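Predict structure. Chain length: 796.
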Amino acid sequence: MFSAIIVRGIFAIKVLGVTALSSHVHSLLEGQVLTEYTEISDLDNKLQQTWTREQYIDVYKHQLVLNRIDEDINKVIIRKEGLNRFKWVWLETAAALYEETGDAIYLDRVKTALLHEVQFPSTDIQFTLSRITFCYLKARDDIELADSERSDVEAMLAAHADACLSMESGTEMNRGIMNTLGLYRTSKLLPDHSNSASWRSKALENWNQGLMRTKDSNEDSTSYVELWLYNMMMAAYEIEPDPQDFFQQSWVKNIFERKLGLLNSFGMDFRISSSDQIQNPAIYEWAATIYRDGRYKWAAQRIFNFLRAQEAQANHVYREPVFLYTSDDIIPVQPNGNSYYSDRRYDQLFPDKLALRSGFGPAATFLSVNLFNGGGHGMADGSSVITLVDEYGLLLNPPARGEAYEQYQNILLFRKDGDPFPLGSIDNGTLRRTVVDLKGGNTATGGKDINLQSVTGMGLRFDANNPSAQNTLIQNVYLVSGTERTKISTTPQSYPVSNKWMNYQNSLGYPLDVSGHDYLEFEWSYDPIADPKNPTVWINSSSPVTTTRFYEFLLNNWRSSTVRYSKDFDDIHIASIEVDLFGYDGADHKQYRDIFILPNELIWIRDSFEYKGSDSGTFQIGPLWHVGDITGATNEWANTRSYSNLYSRSDLDRQYRLHAYGPRRDLLVLMPIRPGYPDQENSSNPETASYRNEIVFQKWSGTLHPGQRISFNSFLLPHEADLDTAELSTLADAVDLLSDNDEVAVVEYGDWTLIANPYGQTVDLPGGLRSKSNSIAYRLNDEEGVEVCYEADEPD
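Prediction complete.
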């Protein structure tokens, strides 16, 4: 049986009007018993709670701000450690509460923290300076400090600002924007300091050469995008001479429209990689005030309510002072619930996302597709389905923070020469390829020649985020000349983490002649919980090496991803995606992903692969799906149990990022077997079951010839929890794969006929219609006519 849990922040009252919340506060704070699975109607009622500015302030005053400072932050002060950025967030909110309420209790906490910072500075100054200066800006006129104490505080701010002059400056990233904001605020607070002009000048340089040049963020992670955006908004109000003009620029408006367009059917942010949404209520309330737009207020209050309803996240929703940005004269308005395509801006910079959505509310289905292999905070294949929400149940979700989870979420993989499928064994994490340029003379080596002649030893080192990680080893090493790859005999070795970094080394025992070759290619695997950063290959060589540059990319790397077609119809949603995959041989192989969604009933994803190599070769190909705990499986389908309270680690520090309660929904993953294809497989690592989901995949093995095509069908059927095997079989039997070859597939489900036609074959339809469209759906209406959902050619 599922245990009952006391969850703080669950609303024990109905929607309040504009009356103050004070009289209801104690019953509201006590919370109520919430079982692990909430009725949809109950959850939806909670999400619709509305908030006024005074109600926000009242609940902040009585909630966790002081508790977190007194119970959490004071522990750090007692240990005589520096306060990190997460501690200063709470102090920032305390300073805002003092400004709003005049209650000296908040001022006292800020004073204590400032004096502590003098003695024990933060270790992450570029994150904390903007928050420390926020606190001092709000409190300095009223805070009681001796002259010597005030002098010490301002000297501390100056020292921090001096240090930030040499730290990250790119204002299109969260670190750079916070660093810039801290510099600019310090120059305002200390205008007479000898370095004040330097701080201001550096801040303006960062602002103008970063954000004002790129005109967007380069973050590709839900939590980091919001962290960047929140600080960008604050920086705009400090730096820009006319902030209102700044926010009226089309590129700034587009940032907020894109953020709104990617909301899932809960009304929550598109989940990609790290995702805690803590800044989102403040961002959306502020956007509503700036643009006088009720859609943003709707999003702000819905997210605020959702976070309050979560056991772990409820402690963190109060970190940002939402009340500072709230305007009570703006009425919440539900946004348009149609699907949304966020295309790339330029040069394939992310975000590039597709959100297939049938609306908002408990009856809606939402499926998100990642279309760019993003940066360090959220890697995924160019057509990965990242999230699936059905009736408020999270059925597919990134299984961890997302950092370095290249293999997560249903990617199409192909491997050459019989290498293990998928990318390394699941027990050993994933497999990457790192290439060492042996010659140089190109852009990656700064134009310098290397001309390495021989190697006597080699190794790999990278920073690891989790010291308990194991199983890091180099699987294979190759010498590469043109398209020729020669395997070097090595003995794989596994090294645990030491001092938060992993190291693999291998002595060849003989000089390896590498003269005349182009690259050394390393295939290495690692335990995903290592969260690897900054991988570096080192080599022992008898010849001098002046400089080397190392390339790291995925074995299933891709060059570009394009949405060929995406459209909402009344009862169905259709999308077609084209991906250029980069192969070992340098060829751009093709992947096509056609998606059909019948909300709350069926999702069909058709993966097609076209081999573009110039020579035949032996390959393994297949789609890989990360799903919830598998509770039942046959050779054609696997049922999953999705608890909707997913989190990445067992430690409490990380639970709040992904912990989410919602109604219980399960998912049937159906993969019909085709002749010549091996049976489906599923596997999991019991030791890491707390943070890694199970895997279901099909695979094809054999010799591929130039131009050959391979395809796979995956059917996702959301359903009520705890169906027995007979009921699951009946559910699977409702999907009728009428015909299936590597050119065209036809599926019948209920009164719908669905056709995946990625290569544009001519398809005959009822009523004399013919079409070459990539994705086609039709059904006969009551008058025996044909309702067709696609951009069809004219009838014959």
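Summary: The domain at 340-413+557-789 is CATH 2.70.98.70 (Beta-galactosidase; Chain A, domain 5).
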